[in-house]
What we know:
Blueprint: H1 12-21, H2 32-46, E1 57-62, E2 65-68
Antiparallel strand pairs: 1-2
Amino acid sequence: MCYKFATDEKTYSDAKSSCRATGGHLAMPKDQATNDFLAKLAKARYSEIDIFPWIGLTYQVQHGTWMWDDGTTLGTGQWNNWAPGD
């Protein structure tokens, strides 16, 4: 795996397009270890500026249903340490 952190602000759609243009995709932290790893990298990279990286989880495809960029739905039985109500 390879993770790339941009230095400019992008919308979710622009970030997703940028990743695809280089043959990649937005990160999909589907487990605690991957999420912790990415959070640590992001904190080190962006601690002095107000940029928050996008991950490949959205409800833009079907409003109200969280979906990963690979087409799977965020559901029960999966790791999901997300804010309540979000």
